[in-house]
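=== RUN LOG ===
request id: a7f3
mode: sequence -> structure
chains: 1
length: 317
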Amino acid sequence: MTRYLTRRVLQMIPLIFGITVVLFAVIQAAPGGPEAALLESDRFIDPAVIEAYRARLGVDQPVPVQYLKWVGGALVGDLGMSFSTTRPVTEMIIERLPATLELMGASFLLATILAFGLGILSAMKQYTWFDHLGTGLSFVGIAMPVFWFALLLQLVFGVWLGWLPVAGTETVGATGLGDHLAHLVLPSLVLSFRYVAGWSRYLRSSLLGVLTADYIRTARAKGLSERRVVGVHALRNAMVPVVSVMALNLAGLFSGAVITETVFAWPGIGRMFVQAMFARDYPLLMGILLLGSVMVVIFNLVADVLYAALDPRIRYE
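=== RESULT ===
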């Protein structure tokens, strides 16, 4: 396993390097530029002023030169200066990262609890009204647009019922853990709903396949309770493909936070990414996209490791 992990980590280096090349090229090919905000105003701006502005930001140089400078700084942790705030990009990302990780963690925990409960019960009560209800909810969760679901929850629980806050992380003038958790409920529910739908279906299908195995019939023949048969003997084997999918979807929680954080005004990286797009803040966009890409690569490795940990028959050499 150690040799395998070392090889995979070494393979990640050129992969991430290639990803940065593609991301940098795509961002540079996007229409407009950091000077577009100036050109959108109704005032006449001297072209010399625009050229001086581009030169100050360093975007007047050839794209390969800009990329090499960016890579050189990224290797030592310097992702450049934000065009819109003139602050270090690394500092801005570190400042917003805890809020995004908190939302991701809460959403992952909620999705895991709901998906496992729904998936196990659906498998044990196959073709009953509960199973049909779970299937219907899964289809709704997969097909429903995230922003629409978020607005719907804000309308129902925030406006009509007034039970939960609809934006931010705390109420003005209020302090305490309870108030903060109340602000976390709706965004984490929105972000986790799609994954509850998918993971519960994966677990149900996997568990149904395991429950027909010979060793499960043997366990039942020995007089073991159904709860012990499912929870001890069947669930571990059924979890092998499900846990792999869950590990791969962790990076999806990061990208899904873009819409969720924007709708709920959650002060995380996702909301900052949208603001950077409107401001055409190239260094900030590159920093956030690089972070997301690294998370995808790392979670792919985590999925492989978990797959081997859950299934003793799998060995990486």
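=== NOTES ===
The radius of gyration is 24 Å.
Residues 92-310 form a domain with the MetI-like fold fold (CATH 1.10.3720.10).
=== END ===
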